[in-house]
Amino acid sequence: MDLKLQHYIEKQLTIKLNTNLTFKWESISGGSINLTYKISANNHNYFVKINDKSVFKNGFKEEVLGLKFLKLNEAITPKIILEGSFNSKIYLVLSWIDKEFQNNNFWKNFAHQLANLHQHKSDKFGLEYSNYMGQLIQKNSFFNKFDNFFIENRLKPQVKIAFDKKLLTKGDLRKFEYLYQQLPTILPKEKPSAVHGDLWSGNYISTANNKAVFIDPAVYYGHREIDLAMSLLFGGFSLNFYNVYQEIYPLEKGFNTRKDLYNLYPLLIHLNLFGNPYLQSIKTIITKF
To answer: What CATH number should be reported for the domain holding residue 18?
Structure first.
């Protein structure tokens, strides 16, 4: 940990909170992209993430906007304490959320929370600004139809990166072009919903009151099935969660087939960030459709 950066953040916290604090820093696990810490200060705890300016050109501003987007659409999020930069580093300080055991009441509440988020609608698919999925830029240009949005803002940019890195072949590109032609007949028609955008098991926290706190968003107005598909990509949530969601806000038939299409996007992201281990899953899906 850079001691100058540490002291700078401590100073900014002291100014923000208008009180003298004694700080204790603890390094914690927090994903593959950022350095993450728990700060303890006079019976209060804070979560801190740190990265290089070269990774996110606007610092953590897009993440702050994403948390505000979720809160505006009635989702529970950590409180934003500080966001800024110092020398070559960027930082974000959030309120600390203690994790609790995930019981049946939690999964029921989580399903209600996600369905409530998805019931916040917009006239178009997209968002006023671009943000990030992992450390790759996520375009959010507005479209009237989700298939156009998904092709132009999600699949095509990642396919181009993968092809330029020689991870995909010209034959793979032809399969993707054929897939693009099929999407309008496969994807169900719904109004754009507020979505988390990167909803896997590492991007929520279960709390003592059996509610989910949403973290690390990649938000926009999209098709709500995106969130449910993503939640299934790396192991899935409790079956109770999906059953309750289906009771509250039923999906059109065929979701278990469509989920693979939606997950092409996060799989392409992982391919471009981490390489070949994700290639076969992508080839299997595009061949299937």
So the answer is: 3.30.200.20
Cα–Cα dist 248/261, whole Å: 24
pLDDT band at 174 (very low <50, low <70, confident <90, very high): very high
Residues 183 and 201 in one domain: yes
Q: Where is the domain boundary, 95, 120, 154?
A: 95
260 an active-site residue?
no
Looking only at the bridges linking them, the beta strands covering 136-138 and 131-133 are antiparallel
| DSSP class per residue in 250-282 | PPPTTHHHHHHHHTHHHHHHHHHHH-GGGHHHH
The single residue of 52, 147, 172, 198 carrying the catalytic annotation is 198
Q: Model confidence over 39-66: pLDDT tens digits?
A: 998 888 999 999 999 999 899 999 999 9
**247: amino acid identity, one letter:** E
Give the model confidence (pLDDT) of 254-270 as tens digits. 999 999 999 999 999 99
Determine how many CB atoms are found less than 10 A away from the CB of residue 96: 17
What is the DSSP-derived secondary structure letter of residue 150? I
CB contact at 8 A, 60 and 70: no
Residues in Cβ contact with 135 at an 8 Å cutoff, skipping those fewer than 6 apart: 33, 55, 56, 273
Our count of domains for the chain comes to 2
13 and 153 inside one domain: no
Q: Supply angle C-alpha 9, 14, 18, rounded to 5.
A: 150
- With DSSP H G I counted as helix, E B as strand and the rest as coil, what are the percentages for the chain, rounded to 5? 45, 20, 35
DSSP per residue over 24-48, as a string? EEEEE---SSSEEEEEEETTEEEEE
